[in-house]
Write a structure and sequence with these properties.
Arc Repressor Mutant, subunit A, 2 domains, DNA-binding, 5 helices, 3-stranded mixed beta sheet, homodimer, Dna Ligase, domain 1, 37% helix, alpha+beta, two-stranded antiparallel ribbon
DNA sequence: TCAAAAATTAGAATCATTCTAATTTTATAC
DNA sequence: GTATAAAATTAGAATGATTCTAATTTTTGA
């Protein structure tokens, strides 16, 4: 692992954020001001192909990269914000439902995040009100 | 609904295929040879925004468009091929797990399709063998 | 029938990503 | 430690999917 590959891996793993290539680029710059965007692409692709990071493709938003540890995502339909949540035994449940060997899965549950909720209703609700 | 919008909607709904914009363009051409790619983009975006078709974003593959009726997807990790399957009460299960109101979800279960399976092993298995 | 609105077209523009070739850095062998 | 090969990085051009703009055509409905 080169210093850049290591730094990028750590940036993606350090937080529970879900960063785009551009955002990783912005985060690595302070420490390595000489780095170039293509290097970030190269290393992110390498980490992804080696199964060291996850790629999240969400309808309407740019690809984002994430840690490998098992967890699922809530996605704000409006702003794309991702929030982690856990559906612990989903892999086994899925394996029972399908013939093929389940290698992994990607579950994205679309909702409105609190901010976008507020913009729509003008109020913050503790819980989403019933329609 | 204009004739193009209608034709595109029908192409996407007619089959259980999962078509890219380009593929929809190829499918509509025989009937409407004058149509232009931008029109396909315009109408697909309109249908999508109006909730009349689904957009499937899969890591590593181009966006594909699909019917709205509730179903889930197996995705071949290698070639991107999509196969429908049903996890009937997943919406309700998810709603019990998360605070926010579940608007909809996208579940993609990654496997190897029979063809890619074959390329890897040289054999077709009725069921995926245990590792 | 005419005016206004909407849809379509052609092609330019955009922008994320990849590619190419040159350069630099790292690893390996002598 | 130095030379050599391999790998990584760089700069910037190229690519390619998608969007945008402005002009034109079609549809609507007064």
């Amino acid at each position: 692992m080169t210093k850049y590959e290591k730094a990028i891996f750590e940036i993606i793993n350090a937080s529970h954020e879900h960063l785009t290539v551009e955002q990783v680029f912005e985060k690595i710059k302070p420490k390595y001001p000489k780095i170039v965007l293509a290097t970030v692409y190269n290393n992110i692709n390498k980490l992804y192909k080696n199964g060291q990071i996850r790629k999240l493709s969400t309808e309407g938003f740019m690809d984002r990269y994430d840690r490998m540890d098992k967890h699922d995502h809530l996605v704000c339909k409006e702003c794309g914000k991702l929030i982690d949540f856990n559906f612990d035994d989903l892999t086994e449940i899925l394996q029972k439902k399908v013939q093929n060997k389940v290698l992994y899965y990607d579950l994205q549950v679309f909702t409105l995040c609190p901010d976008c909720q507020k913009k729509k209703t003008g109020f913050i609700h503790e819980k989403t009100p019933l329609d």
